[in-house]
Amino acid sequence: MNNIIVYLEIEEGIVADVSLELLTKGRKLANQLGVDLDAVAIGDGLETIKEQVMPYGVDTLYVAQDKRLKYYTSLPHTAILVGLFKEQQPQIALMGATSTGRDLGPRVSSCLHSGLTADCTSLEIGNFTDAKTQKEYKDLLYQIRPAFGGNIVATIVNPDHRPQMATVREGVMKKEVAEKPGKGNVLQVDVNKYVTDADFVVSVISREMQKSKNNLKSSPIVVAGGYGVGGKENFALLEQLAKEIHGEVGASRAAVDAGWVDHDRQIGQTGVTVRPKLYIACGISGQIQHLAGMQESGIVISVNTDPDAPINAVADYVITGSVESVVPKLIKYFKKNSK
Amino acid sequence: MGLKIVVLAKQVPDTRNVGKDAMKEDGTVNRAALPAIYNPEDLNALEQALRLKDLIPGTTVNVLTMGPARAAEIVRESMYRGADGGAILSGREFAGADTLATSYAISCAIKKFGDVDMIVCGRQAIDGDTAQVGPQVAEKLSLPQLTYVEEIVKLDEGAKKVVVKRRVEKGVEVLECPFPVVITVNGSAAPCRSREAKRVMRFKRAAVPSELAAMPSAYPEVYQKDSALKIGEWSVSDIDTDINSLGLKGSPTKVKSIQAVSFQAKESKRMTDSDEDIDTLMKELIADNILG
């Protein structure tokens, strides 16, 4: 009762990183609240889920296995979560802000009339006083998220309804094995108790999924380009630099929208969050949406013709100059000094 | 026979082009500084609906939007592009609603259109980016949902089945579902067709009743005679609803606080693009084991 539950997103028997990140965060919140951390796996071929998630300190893993659940569809997953939540009364439920979590979360929250906050960038525990009724609430989940295109940050609470639900994007939380193991229980869920034939109304005709093509999220060095790079050709310079210093190429939304770089390399609030050791921002002005996706980088170098570009405020090194002139020199002097 | 389609659309502040005066000094949003636009993905949704209208004779497309009287602009814009008409849902009872209270209100209003075959809306609105209203409307109406849809690939009117292509992070799914169904459409879907000059001429005087006061004096007569110009203006008394589930009261989530975003400025080393400066920088990064 009153535990924290994480919905596990599973593709071909493998738990998604975002779910492991949420287990890491969930473990910390559970410790703070003195409750259990539970996880729910729904699908088919779930034999290895236990060993995948237990290192993150799971107390009870619920396993709902059924051939018909091989691919995610909204209604059966909703039915199972709603049924489990009604019985287990978790106080907090977390899921990834992915196309799956953002399909499932709202449906579950509507069914239970519990609030859901999308795309949280931070989750904390704290107290809340209702300004109108002066009623005090202890230990609520602060669901902190950017709003209005990233220009403001709002802290949302669900005072009276449970579970308090939140989705979080992949890469926003850190994935870390728990210090102490959890209880390690595994409970098989009777799928037919919750799901009816009518829930399988959507049929998957075909499915083509690809593995992620780049290693941007976990690369220790990122060379990112913005609108100031000036064109697709100049992105080749960035690729050269990235290759030389063993980094990955990223981009701001402006460069992606201009069609110079693939969408899966976009860094920022609506793209990937990165925290590399070194971040080289080339021709990126530094809109808040972009900063949100790279602010935890170690060392930041900004290359920009504008000495007052907003990104320079968060940079450790500011090089005032054009991408065309600076990037080749970065390559040249890296080669010279690294030997 | 044709289908009865309702498109959900929202008038939103254009958060993509936020200028320096978008935030007031107290950290709240200066809505006046942001132009109001048709939520981009709702336009993608409208296009998918209009394609079905092109394909299946007798199909009607009505647009429903929640907002003040000026949101009638969304319905007019939709009519310029091919929609038959629509309605706005207005009233202070709806104010302060989170996604759940919004979805409840919208689901009650949809019922006023009668037996709807398909509800189509954008995946998410750019002022909140939550992507929650589509699935929540579906749940409130006990309908299945198809989200992140890029294209309605096939529709079998006799069998009442629709096939869609769903675009997710790592690829594409093709799903089949019987209708009625709620479909949310991605920005990667086909862009919406432009306005048709003839339709603009025909419908520029389409209005909700509360807009009539501002019209030329002879106009109301024309308006009364031509039902195609009438955009519905529904208030809480026009829909069958539980008032306690609306607005702030019906919202399980509360905003505890709002802060303007600020980033801790670092002390930065400034340098030029001269060979000496960049040589020094590289030596420093290699010595610090940041590169190497």
Provide structural commentary.
The complex is a heterodimer of chains A (339) and B (292). Helix content of chain A is 27%, strand content 29%. Chain A has 339 residues and is an alpha/beta fold. Chain A folds into 2 domains: 4-200, Rossmann fold (3-Layer(aba) Sandwich); 221-337, 3-Layer(aba) Sandwich (Rossmann fold), CATH 3.40.50. Chain A starts with a strand and ends with a helix. The model of chain A has no long low-confidence stretch (mean pLDDT 94). Chain B has one domain: Rossmann fold (3-Layer(aba) Sandwich), CATH 3.40.50. Chain B has helices at 40-55, 72-81, 99-110, 133-140, 197-203, 219-225, 275-287; strands spanning 4-8, 11-13, 36-38, 60-66, 85-89, 118-122, 145-156, 161-168, 171-178, 181-185, 232-234, 254-260, 269-272. Chain B has a 9-stranded mixed β-sheet, sandwiched between helices. In chain B, α2 packs antiparallel against α5 and α3 (99-110) packs across α4 (133-140). Chain B is globular. Chain B starts with a strand and ends in a 5-residue tail after the last helix. At the A-B interface, α3, α4, β7, β9 and β10 of A face α3, α4, β7, β8 and β9 of B.
Could you give a short description of this structure?
Chain A is of the alpha/beta class and 339 residues long. Chain A has helices at residues 17-33, 49-53, 74-88, 101-112, 191-194, 232-244, 253-257, 288-291, 323-338; strands spanning 4-8, 10-11, 14-15, 37-43, 60-65, 92-96, 116-120, 122-129, 136-147, 152-157, 164-168, 185-188, 203-209, 221-225, 248-251, 278-282, 299-304, 317-320. In chain A, helix 2 links the parallel strand 4 (37-43) and strand 5 (60-65).
User: How helical, in percent, are the residues of chain B?
Assistant: 25-40%
Fourth CATH level, the homologous superfamily of chain B: HUPs
Architecture per CATH nomenclature, i.e. the level-2 architecture of chain B: 3-Layer(aba) Sandwich
Sheet/helix structural class of chain A: alpha/beta
**Which bin fits the share of residues in helices of chain A?**
25-40%
Structural class by SSE content of chain B: alpha/beta
Number of structural domains of chain B: 1
Instruction: Give the topology string of chain A: H per helix, E per strand.
Output: EEEHEHEHEHEEEEEEHEEHEHEHEEH
- Please tell me the overall pLDDT of chain A: 94
Q: Largest chain-chain contact?
A: A-B, 92 and 78 residues
Number of domains of chain A: 2
CATH topology of chain B: Rossmann fold
Please tell me what the overall shape of chain A is.
globular
